Amino acid sequence: GFLVAIGVAVFAWVLYSRTRFGFEVQVIGDSARAGRYAGMRTRRKIIAVMCLSGAIAGVGGASQDGDFRHQLDPRGLRQANYGYTGIVVAALARYNPFAVVLVAFLLGGLLNAGYTLQGADFPSGLVGVMQGLILFCALGGELFVRYRLRFERRRRKGPEPALEPAP
After folding, report:
1. Which terminus in the chain has less CB density within 10 A, N or C?
2. Selection from 47, 42, 21 nearest residue 31 by Cα
3. pLDDT number for residue 76
């Protein structure tokens, strides 16, 4: 599964950083109106990106079933909350394909540690709480990076200079 993830990350990086398709997806992602104005087929690109993301999710699911259990779970992937974990991984990785592999590995380690420690002293929901805290702290830090706050001292207001009337 890890080699498949690295292969998909390389494919996604090449596709989105080295091709016209990737450039158009970035433009449309920033502003669909700007993409339409530039002559890009926005609806077709959006559908293509959705199909591509579904294919990547299918490769991930096939890798998961093929590597570990060799059976399909009748409850589906919703039982394991992979969708929500995927959103957390993508947000923490800042949508970088290589960082997604690293962050997924680390959050997978956190999840497996939670399964191992489950018992009376360690409730099962604590791992989800920890993931949420990590996400909020990372996104809160991103807020301060993007929007730098500056505090200025207020100056004392003195008499304002008189304005001369225009001739």
Report:
1. C
2. 42
3. 58
